[in-house]
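Q: Sequence in, structure out?
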Amino acid sequence: MNHDEQALDFSTVIASTVHDMKNSLAMLMQAHSQWLARLPQAQREGAEQGVIDFEFAHLNGMLVQLLGLYKLGVNQLPLQPAYHELDDFIEAQLAAHQEVFASRGIIATYEVDPLSPLGFFDRELIASVLSNCINNAIRYARESLLITVSDEAGQLVLSINDDGAGYPREMLERQADYVQGINHSSGSTGLGLYFANRIAALHQRNGVEGRTEISNGGPLGGGVFSLYLP
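A: Exactly. Output:
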């Protein structure tokens, strides 16, 4: 056996470790939920609980991303698109974050263009992208978050809007460079945008690939993350 054969495939080791971490986190979240249910109502709504809920969701989202990127790298992330009712899909994404919204005093709403009631995409993959982007919007929103669904030149556009300060100028200028390096003031690496764009690009139709875009403004005046699906 030569040296190359003896060497560990660290990407596989890390992926296996991340998978175990995700399972452990799921068990921790379940145990915490059961413990919380036994507490008096007044003790379930403290500021600390909001931090715990948010960080649970944030950690889970990062682990999902890491596993997804590994599977993309080894071509083990199959695309399984189907038609989905967008009202039900968006409602499910917001419901998954309802406790965090409540603890942070954020009002989350959505608007679906009645002319575009259905979307054709991989539900699990797009849900993972939206979950990460919702978590990011929660981090910066002041009190409002809005998801809009529309049609633009034949593409389905899912946008997450917040009323925060918006994306930094340098991030907007470098958005094509998805892995932008660690920003020590925010902790951002751009990995979430890279993951979102890779998932979007898996969705193709008539030679057109899905894509992502970040901007400022929108109906709430803050950051806007948009996912374009052909």
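The chain has a mean pLDDT of 83.
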